[in-house]
Specification:
The complex is a heterodimer of chains A (100) and B (485).
Chain A lengths: L2 H22 L3 H22 L8 H32 L11
Chain B lengths: L1 H20 L3 H29 L2 E4 L10 E4 L1 H24 L10 H17 L3 H19 L5 H32 L4 H10 L4 H15 L8 H7 L2 H30 L2 H24 L3 H16 L2 H4 L5 H36 L10 H4 L1 H15 L5 H16 L3 H25 L13 H16 L5 H7 L9
Antiparallel strand pairs in B: 1-2
Helix pairs in contact in B: 1-2, 1-4, 2-3, 2-4, 3-4, 3-10, 3-14, 3-19, 3-20, 4-5, 4-10, 5-6, 5-10, 6-8, 6-9, 7-10, 8-10, 9-10, 9-12, 10-12, 10-14, 11-12, 11-18, 12-14, 12-18, 14-16, 14-17, 14-19, 16-18, 16-19, 17-18
The chains are: A mainly alpha (100), B mainly alpha (485).
Chain lengths: 100, 485
């Protein structure tokens, strides 16, 4: 197995795990973590796929750095909303609660 | 000249976003008025430049790709930049009078608006897949913040649902980007189009991108997050979301399709996306008819109108070039007229709810007698949504009808007709409620003229688009290089 295949396999596995977790759990925090795992898998694919002649390509590294910043911002926003939602409704998922 | 125009589109919104964070609502409003003037002037200037000289590429800050950011300033991009300037200005001016400055959290409207505006301009102008991703995420995060602005529990639930759907959609798109870079070693849209002609891309790329972006565009049956988010947000926010935000992800999908749909697409994908769009038209309209709250009617109407956009895919795959061009023109015109009409409709609905003090459709009884002006804006916007002549919506549907006939795909004609009939159904239900007589006393609050005039102006533009449709259609088709002959 070449390193590229290993990267791709790990990336696809992480994406699949994250996606399944995202769909199957209802706890907001778990869902958010599943999203982050899926994101890591995507970044791994982005870096792993682009290795012509087994030399790392700097462009996807820069892209992933940007991607991590975006994922961090999204995670922070989700945490803030989630905390406030829990404070108001006392629930950790989106079913039920006031006004549903 | 260009050195001033393009940074003006991206830098001023970001600078204003940061500035507005530091001040209260009233000062933020002052800053934003200045920003609106700048944006409208710059968008007009860029539109005129491209109409005159044709499209061009622009290296941001003088840094060349792949390290720097290359912007593609073509006819389609400047058309949407101008549309954004018009609709976002209208929503911002409306919000300045509509939102209550005494509530502290309302001051966050301005920074979020400017982040959203920057993201939208970024998406329209981006020349490569990764900057499209960054723009898309900036839009999503700002839009979720705007939905949650009130901070009440139902708004938070809608915002969280919206955020999770948007994040999942972005990851689907980013996976497609990873596969594209892995196979071509470039992210530039024009570079991919060249390479795709010789080495056909994997169909999986287009399927992943289509799934992710369809979730963000709220294509049926992935529309579950839209009605709550658009229905619960403040009216100026709903106008921004329905008119512009959902269009950004569709724009990316359309760009990808036009660059590599020929090679990576298939008749199943094209017809499948069209069929889901058609189902969205029918289900969205029917759901709109059944809603009891006014803004939910308008929100479900968006699900229906978004469905039409997806007719682009079957009508531009495997057909003659002239037919595909006809379909592109029809879809672009539909997008523009829907943006104007739906923004007008949400703002007018906001005024009506403010006037009667109740979000229910049944509470509108008596409105036609005492508030004819607000109702008239709503009605004018509805004329364009239903596709009645001479509105922009009519010209768009007419072009799509011709494209369906030319492509030999007669089944879409049924969708166009049924969609118009069903939209008449939910619009007339609102009129029926508002024409009921209640008595001779006027029980309503009368919104200030400044609030009334803005939806009226947008609705008049949606109608007027039908008369001047040729001009935007000529400019939107301009590729990079070569102006209007």
């Amino acid at each position: 197995m070449t390193p590229v295949q290993l990267y791709v396999l790990a990336g696809v596995l992480l994406c699949g795990l994250g996606f399944a977790g995202f769909l199957l759990t209802s706890h907001l925090l778990r869902k958010l973590m599943a999203f982050n795992i899926m994101g890591s898998g995507t970044f791994l694919l982005l870096v792993g796929l682009a290795q012509p002649n087994n030399t790392p390509d700097p462009v996807p590294q820069a892209l992933v750095l940007t991607g991590i910043v975006v994922a961090l911002a999204a995670t922070a926003l989700a945490l803030v909303l989630m905390r406030r939602w829990y404070h108001l409704s006392g629930r950790t998922d989106l079913q039920g609660g006031p006004g549903d | 000249m260009l050195a001033l125009l393009i940074p003006g589109l991206l830098f001023t919104p970001l600078a204003l976003a940061v500035l507005c964070l530091l001040v209260n609502f009233r000062i933020g409003r002052l800053f934003s008025w200045v920003g609106i003037i700048v944006q409208v002037l710059v968008a007009l200037g860029l539109w005129a430049t491209v109409a005159d000289q044709g499209g061009l590429y622009y290296d941001l800050g003088g840094w060349a790709a792949p390290l720097g950011i290359e912007l593609r300033v073509d006819g389609l991009a400047v058309t949407f930049v101008l549309l954004t300037a018009v609709v976002a200005s209208a929503a911002a001016l409306h919000a300045g009078a509509y939102l209550d400055p005494r509530k502290g959290y309302q001051s966050y409207f301005w920074p979020l608006l400017w982040f959203l505006w920057a993201g939208l301009n970024g998406v329209w102008l981006a020349g490569d897949l990764f900057n499209l991703y960054v723009g898309l995420e900036l839009i999503s995060l700002a839009a979720v913040g705007l939905v949650a602005l009130g901070g009440e529990a139902p708004a938070l639930r809608a915002a969280l649902r919206y955020l999770y759907a948007a994040l999942l959609g972005s990851l689907g798109y980013l996976l497609a980007v990873a596969l594209v870079y892995g196979s071509y070693g470039t992210l530039s849209l024009s570079g991919i189009a060249e390479l795709a002609a010789d080495h056909p891309p994997a169909p999986l790329i287009l399927v992943l991108a289509a799934l992710g972006l369809a979730l963000k565009t709220a294509l049926f049956p992935l529309h579950f997050w839209l009605p709550a988010a658009h229905g619960i947000a403040k009216s100026p926010v709903s106008a921004l979301l329905s008119a512009l935000v959902v269009k950004a992800s569709f724009y990316i999908m359309a760009r990808l399709w036009l660059e590599m749909g020929e090679q990576a697409g298939s008749i199943w994908l094209a017809q499948g996306l069209g069929a889901l769009g058609a189902a969205g038209v029918v289900v969205g309209s029917w759901q709109a008819f059944r809603q009891s709250r006014l803004k939910m009617v308008v929100a479900y109407s968006s699900v229906a109108q978004i469905g039409y956009l997806f007719l682009l895919f079957p009508l531009s795959w495997g057909v003659a070039t002239t037919t595909a061009e006809l379909a592109q023109q029809g879809i672009t015109l539909h997008l523009i007229s829907h943006a104007l009409a739906k923004a007008a409709m949400f703002l007018a609905a906001g005024n009506l709810i403010l006037a009667v003090g109740n979000p229910q459709v049944s509470a509108l009884a008596g409105v036609s007698r005492f508030l004819p002006f607000s109702l008239f804006s709503f009605g004018l916007a509805a004329v364009s949504l239903m596709g009645l002549p001479p509105s922009g919506g009519f010209v768009a549907k007419w072009l799509l009808l011709q494209a369906s006939l030319a492509a030999g795909q007669w089944w879409w004609i049924g969708v166009l007709l049924l969609g118009s009939l069903l939209s008449a159904l939910y619009v007339f239900r609102i009129f029926r409620a508002s024409f009921l007589e209640t008595g001779s006393d006027d029980p309503f609050y009368h919104p200030p003229r400044s609030l009334e005039v803005i939806p009226m102006a947008l609705a008049v533009m949606a109608i007027g688009l039908g008369f001047v449709a040729n001009l935007p259609l000529t400019v939107m088709a301009l590729p990079v290089g070569g102006g209007v002959p």
